[in-house]
Amino acid sequence: xxxxxxxxGLVQPGGxxxxxxxxxxxxxxxxxxxxxxxxxxxxxxxxxxxxSDGSTSYxxxxxxxxxxxxxxxxxxxxxQMNTLSPEDTAVYYxxxxxxxIWGQGTQVTxxx
Length: 112
Prior knowledge:
Distance between the termini: 37 Å
Helix content: under 10%
Oligomer: single chain
Number of helices: 0
Order of helices and strands: EEEEEEEEEE
Structural class: mainly beta
Strand order of the largest sheet: 2-10-9-4-5-6
């Protein structure tokens, strides 16, 4: 079982990025999926989840700015991030729900 994130990078405040997470080796459609982020010294924060029934959840700090979606035909989950701020700088990980499989992470840096 494997998850591979992509789409991170450097963006200016107010900008947008879309993260992708490609899954393989397990029945993707049977699992909820989510995104978490890690800031050194601040621990791991669960950002968003999308579940097998299509429902979604978001941590308060990203509500209205981030959107999680999934494409079961492509075994991929996405995180569209808009109106980014320096506080969103982190390594972003995708994971299954429950969090038994994790990706390797992708760095998102929001800076001028």
